[in-house]
């Protein structure tokens, strides 16, 4: 420190001091000639003969010189507010102050800016909007996966993590550059206190070493020694302002680096690869159903004409118009359509839908179609049973209708001993309205039924006879009063009758992810009703189908009400399938493609936390760079900042007067930089006090300073 203060004296004082120091070094050199060739004992004797002035001793001459120098310095610095700069006028100054500041600023802020820009560009360019749908009405009712606040990026999660992890890797380097920028205003403050004689706020030698350690990349190590000094030294001096300032800056950079590391770790943990469903508009697939063009013409309009258009008439015999289409749909092997069911509080409906295919599972759509709903209630107890001459026949008299049950198909003969099984007997009658007084059943005289047509909904009665009911079920339904036994005993012949109505609807529904989310319906006109009722009134078609429907319902029902409901649902599906002969496929109303993609889920909170911490480096760097530029307007600040380093301290210790001279850069303080022959080597030798001291040795010459 005293060496630097001599630089701040007048040119004459500086020259005298340098001359005196050179003479001292020369004396040391002459006195120590040949030491390298002596034995260790001789060298120890030499060391014991050495005597250096002790500032703490009673040497009045030393004290007078010291006080004189201090007064000279105080008078010089106090006489001018910018005393240090005045002392350096006409001398060489360290170059590169603005280059170092600019370089430190760029290294401190550019990596963080580049990382932030890279992350923002990647998120912006590859972000996938999973909340916007081509058709919002087809939005899934399930919870939105994006509700937690995240970006979904079409990039591998490992790539995003790799980019973000550079922030925590570069943070220590950026922190070191911030300390370099902070060193300039700290040095300016140091010189200001020194110039104003505020010695109590200047560092002690150990504190000075701490400052050097902080400013020369000490980081954690410097903080550790500073903590030991603060907490371990019981009788230490009060910490000076430079120590506090540089310690505060270093700790702030360390804390900021740790925060970046924590934010980066948080982002790593929160970032994951997930399967996400996205949507895209598509050309409309043919998922709706409507009448084929022929069945919308005028000659098929109206209930009766529609009935004629829906059936073939040959020799007064009615058959299906296109039985192959209807039977393919009925047996679920058609590529045209299939029958599906939907149930809600309004009941159960059978509707026409597209057969499943590979792409259909990934399409959400709205479609128009036709649907049927059948409802049945038991009327067995409202009718009168009159057994016939054998168990195969029974007369069943109901209000508004007469069933003459006959054995339609004999697969087995009836055996009283239980060897065989009778086939179920079924019969149905259709009526024009709910009064059940106007019958349209095929088989009546031709002039009568040809002029009849049903309404929508249409009504019918249905009866089934079981020659031996125990062949069909053994469940609790045998005890239900809806089942009328007429041969004594629940295992013998029985009969059941239902009054049913079937409604045909124009249906619009939404299918999302294979599930029906909306099912709107309106009653179809009577013409459409005829297309689905007429095939069911054809006895050659309906008897075996209704027989199979009743057998299946009887085997799986426990009550008469359940039997009627299951039969009604099956009836709707059969009627819908037989009516498929008049329909065609049409484009869906709207449709969108669902695509399951593997995306990276990037949480917003850790992402923006990391960006904010990265930008903190930028803000602090710009602030410190501004302070540094203002500080180095005094050239002495840059000179002192360069010497406040390990290089400056070593040069001051070993380079003699050369270290006190002005120089363009710190390298010029060392004679080795000139390349003019060999220079002394630093050695650690035993000291007189029992420790060690650093010396320069050149050949056999050992000195405390530069050896010429």
Automatic annotation (TrEMBL):
Entry annotated with the keyword Membrane: yes
Disordered: annotated segments: 1-66
Start-end of Basic and acidic residues biased regions: 51-66
Domain of life, per lineage: Eukaryota
Biased composition (Polar residues): 10-48
UniProt KW keywords: Membrane, Transmembrane, Transmembrane helix
Transmembrane feature ranges: 98-123, 159-187, 208-227, 247-267, 607-632
Protein name (Swiss-Prot/TrEMBL): Uncharacterized protein
Native source species: Myriangium duriaei CBS 260.36
């Amino acid at each position: 420190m005293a060496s630097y203060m001599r630089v701040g004296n007048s040119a004459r004082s500086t020259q005298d001091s340098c001359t005196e120091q050179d003479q001292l070094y020369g004396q040391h050199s002459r006195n120590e000639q040949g030491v390298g060739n002596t034995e260790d004992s001789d060298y120890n004797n030499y060391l014991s003969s050495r005597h250096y002035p002790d500032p703490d001793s009673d040497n009045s001459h030393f004290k007078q010189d010291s006080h004189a120098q201090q007064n000279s310095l105080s008078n010089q610095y106090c006489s001018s507010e910018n005393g240090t700069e005045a002392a350096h006028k006409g001398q060489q100054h360290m170059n590169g102050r603005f280059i170092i500041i600019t370089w430190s600023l760029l290294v401190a802020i550019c990596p963080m800016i580049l990382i932030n820009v890279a992350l923002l560009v990647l998120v912006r360019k590859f972000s996938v909007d999973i909340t916007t749908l081509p058709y919002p009405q087809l939005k899934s009712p399930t919870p939105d996966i994006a509700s937690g606040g995240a970006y979904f990026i079409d990039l591998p999660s490992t790539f995003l993590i790799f980019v973000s992890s550079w922030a925590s890797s570069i943070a220590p380097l950026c922190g070191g550059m911030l300390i370099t920028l902070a060193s300039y205003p700290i040095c300016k403050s140091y010189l200001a206190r020194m110039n104003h004689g505020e010695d109590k706020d200047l560092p002690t030698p150990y504190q000075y070493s701490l400052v050097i350690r902080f400013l020369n990349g000490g980081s954690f190590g410097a903080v550790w020694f500073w903590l030991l000094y603060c907490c371990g030294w019981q009788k230490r001096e009060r910490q000076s302002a430079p120590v506090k300032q540089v310690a505060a800056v270093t700790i702030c950079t360390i804390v900021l680096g740790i925060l970046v590391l924590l934010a980066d770790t948080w982002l790593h943990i929160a970032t994951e690869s997930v399967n996400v469903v996205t949507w895209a508009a598509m050309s409309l697939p043919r998922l709706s159903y409507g009448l084929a063009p022929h069945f919308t013409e005028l000659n098929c309009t109206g209930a009766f004409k529609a009935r004629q258009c829906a059936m073939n008439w040959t020799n007064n015999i009615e058959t299906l118009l296109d039985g192959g289409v209807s039977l393919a749909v009925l047996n679920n092997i058609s590529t045209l359509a299939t029958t599906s069911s939907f149930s809600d509080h309004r009941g159960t409906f059978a509707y026409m839908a597209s057969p499943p295919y590979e792409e259909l599972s990934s399409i959400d759509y709205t479609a128009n179609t036709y649907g049927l709903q059948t409802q049945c209630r038991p009327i067995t107890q409202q009718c009168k049973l009159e057994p016939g001459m054998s168990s195969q026949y029974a007369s069943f008299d109901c209000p508004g209708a007469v069933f003459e049950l006959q054995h339609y198909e004999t697969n087995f003969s009836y055996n009283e001993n239980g060897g065989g099984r009778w086939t179920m007997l079924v019969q149905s009658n259709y009526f024009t309205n709910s009064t059940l007084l106007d019958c349209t059943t095929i088989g009546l005289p031709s002039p009568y039924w040809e002029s009849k047509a049903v309404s929508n909904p249409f009504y019918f009665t249905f009866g089934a006879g079981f020659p031996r009911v125990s062949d069909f079920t053994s469940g609790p339904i045998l005890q239900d009063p809806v089942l009328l036994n007429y041969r004594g005993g629940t295992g013998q012949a029985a009969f059941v009758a239902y009054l049913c109505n079937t409604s045909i609807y124009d249906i619009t529904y939404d299918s999302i992810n294979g599930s029906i989310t909306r099912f709107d319906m309106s009653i179809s006109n009577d013409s459409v009703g005829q297309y689905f009722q007429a095939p069911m009134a054809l006895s050659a078609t309906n008897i075996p189908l209704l027989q199979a429907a009743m057998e299946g319902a009887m085997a799986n029902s426990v009550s008469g009400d359940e039997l009627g409901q299951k039969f009604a649902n099956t009836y709707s599906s059969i009627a819908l399938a037989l009516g498929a002969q008049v329909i065609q496929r049409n484009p869906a109303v709207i449709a969108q493609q669902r695509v399951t993609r593997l995306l990276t889920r990037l949480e917003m909170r850790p992402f923006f936390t990391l960006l904010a911490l990265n930008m903190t480096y930028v803000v602090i760097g710009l602030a410190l760079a501004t302070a540094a530029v203002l500080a180095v307007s005094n050239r002495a600040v840059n000179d002192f900042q360069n010497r406040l380093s390990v290089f400056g301290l070593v040069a001051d210790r070993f380079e003699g007067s050369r270290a006190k001279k002005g120089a363009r850069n710190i390298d010029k303080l060392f004679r080795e930089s000139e390349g003019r022959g060999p220079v002394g080597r630093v050695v650690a030798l035993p000291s007189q006090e029992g420790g060690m001291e650093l010396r320069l040795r050149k050949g056999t010459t050992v000195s405390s300073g530069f050896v010429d």
